[in-house]
Amino acid sequence: MSTDVLDIGSVPAAWTRRHLLDVESLSAEEINIILDSAVTFKEVTANCAQKIPILAGRTAANLFFEPSTRTRTSFSLAARRLGADTIDFSSSGSSLSKGETFIDTAKNIEAMGIDVVIVRHRTPGTAHLLAQKLNCSVINAGDGPHEHPTQGLLDILSIRERLGHIKGLTVALVGDIAHSRTARSNIWGLKTLGAHVIVCGPSTLVSKRWEELGVEVAYDLDAILPRCDVLNLLRIQFERQTTRPFPSVREYALLYAMNRERLARAKRDILILAPGPINRGVEITPDVADGPHSAILEQVTNGLAVRMAVLWLILGGSS
Ligand code: CP
Predict the structure, then answer these.
(1) Which residue's alpha carbon is at the smallest distance from atom 4 of ligand 1?
(2) Which ligand 1 atom is nearest residue 72's CA?
(3) What is the pLDDT at residue 215?
(4) DSSP state, 60?
(5) Is the CB of 275 under 6 A from ligand 1?
(6) Which of 8, 24, 181, 285 could lock onto 148 through a cystine, CB 3.0 to 4.6 A?
(7) Distance from the alpha carbon of residue 300 to the mean position of ligand 1, in angstroms
(8) How far apart are CA 277 and CA 67, in angstroms?
(9) Is 90 exceeded by the pLDDT of residue 229?
(10) Atom 6, ligand 1: which residue's CA is nearest?
(11) How many other C-beta atoms can be found within 10 angstroms of the C-beta atom of residue 186?
(12) Ligand 1 centroid from CA 71, angstroms
């Protein structure tokens, strides 16, 4: 396939950002620019399978200080599909173990001629800090429990693709809301686009104070299920917890796992999302995860499209 910069057009004038640090600060217009650009990239690259080398000569660096399968691979592939070079930095085996600071590490990577740093770190605010300290662009790939902007955007794109719109939908985020950066990015994006958002889970993981963000708080999944157009099932993040938030995983699954019985009581066209990694049998049963209501693997493809769009918007318009 022959593709060049003319196929994709130029970056919309309304897009002026050098960084993507959160969804909270994005306007509805900016979110729609990202989603519409992602759709265009899916179309011109045959569902993200082919190259469109509009970022040739640019270099993207992945700086991941936490584990990742989807986000890291997806950003690397997205950059390469756009013709950019990529660097993959891992904290294990790096000179951080010799006492080099995080900022010095980032500055040294930037000094190799990097145009954009994609950072994941356990500390909230890390991407914002790097945006202040570095001259290159910065994309937040997850900062502790704060935000995971491209995950929120790919979730919203997957909803829009299947259901046609966002405004007026009821979307429930179910599970470990307390520790979920995906929840926060979904909440900001969905609310900005006019959805009604419910956060649902055990009271140890869902504080009433979430209502302050303008979302509905629920503890009984079966009570809200008939109203929901979309369920986004969030993983229980045991690695971020110091105490067990419920007596057993089995009890959690009984109350909150999406299974065949609950599916039968949901809206006929309910959409099931899960950001991954999924724990089969905990937040979702295998038959639902692999069934027709699930968009789990579409989310992964849409992740590639959203990341191509974000890299292009951030780098495509500036030299
Ligand atoms: N959804 C998500 O962020 O997955 P990874 O942790 O594998 O990147």
Answers:
(1) 70
(2) 8
(3) 98
(4) E
(5) yes
(6) 181
(7) 10
(8) 11
(9) yes
(10) 68
(11) 31
(12) 5
Q: Please work out whether the CB of residue 278 comes within 6 Å of at least one atom of ligand 1.
A: no
The number of beta carbons lying within 10 Å of the beta carbon of residue 316 is 19
Distance CA 25, CA 35 (A): 16
Going by C-alpha positions, the residue among 272, 235, 208 that lies closest to residue 70 is 235
Tokens representing residue 299 in the block: 């989310």
Residue to probe by mutation, ligand 1, list 63, 65, 71, most atoms within 8 Å of CB: 71
Check residue 2 and give its pLDDT.
44
Q: How confident is the model at residue 27 (pLDDT cuts 50, 70, 90)?
A: very high
Q: Is 70 in the pocket of ligand 1 (CB under 6 A)?
A: yes
What is the model's pTM? 0.94
Q: What's the CA gap between 87 and 50, in Å, rounded?
A: 21
Name every residue whose Cβ is closer than 8 Å to that of residue 297 and which is 6 or more positions away in sequence: none
- Distance (Å, rounded) from C-alpha 304 to C-alpha 300? 7
One-letter amino acid for residue 186 of the chain: N
Q: Which atom of ligand 1 is nearest to the CA of 142?
A: 3
**Residues in contact with 261: Cβ distance below 8 Å, sequence separation at least 6, in sequence order:** none
